[in-house]
Design goal:
Layout: H1 2-28, H2 33-60
Helix pairs in contact: 1-2
Length: about 70
Amino acid sequence: MELFRLIVVGLLIAILLSLGRALYLMTTGKGDSGKMVRALTWRISLSVGLLLLMLFAAHQGWIMPHGIGR
């Protein structure tokens, strides 16, 4: 279970780093827009991967989702 938490935290950090890189490239105007698009593509891919991992973990019973207001 600790490994699962490390993977989730690692993916969240990677998502934030990719978003930060895209922000840096956008604000400085350095390089071409292809680098910014690539950074944003990585962020979207990592986010989708994290979502699929969470759905798989819920299906396997590794995590228990809860409803709001239960």
